[in-house]
Design goal:
By secondary structure, the protein is mainly alpha-helical. Helices cover 67% and strands 0% of the residues. It has one domain. It has 5 helices and no strands.
Length: 110
């Protein structure tokens, strides 16, 4: 495997998708307009990583609103161990409205 290719591919993904989404997460407690922009980034990231298909609600409502609300409940990780705990907490928060084990989605969202 060419590690330079993998590194540049990861960098490209981060620049094009992840960086905007991580910046948008900073607006979790911002104005309604900021939150709307952040929710759009959440949709873009879920679509790009092909995980949106996993988010089918048990009942009617905006498809990713429960995911957005679950993300709002998670504190920003400050260490590697904290990151693992945040992903586990997000999995639990996503399991309730969607009825699935969203490990892949939770790790991508955080």
């Amino acid at each position: 495997m060419d590690f330079r290719y993998a590194a540049f591919t990861y960098l490209y993904e981060w620049v094009c998708y992840d960086r905007r989404f991580m910046k948008a997460l900073e607006f979790r407690e911002g104005s309604e307009n900021d939150q709307e922009l952040a929710r759009k980034e959440l949709f873009a990231v879920a679509k790009h990583y092909d995980i949106i298909r996993n988010f089918k609600l048990k009942k009617e409502g905006p498809r990713l609103l429960p995911a957005w609300n679950a993300l709002k409940e998670i504190a920003k990780p400050t260490s590697q161990q904290d990151a693992k705990e945040c992903v586990s907490q997000l999995v639990e928060n996503l399991r309730r409205p969607y009825g699935l084990d969203p490990w892949s989605a939770a790790s991508k969202f955080l």
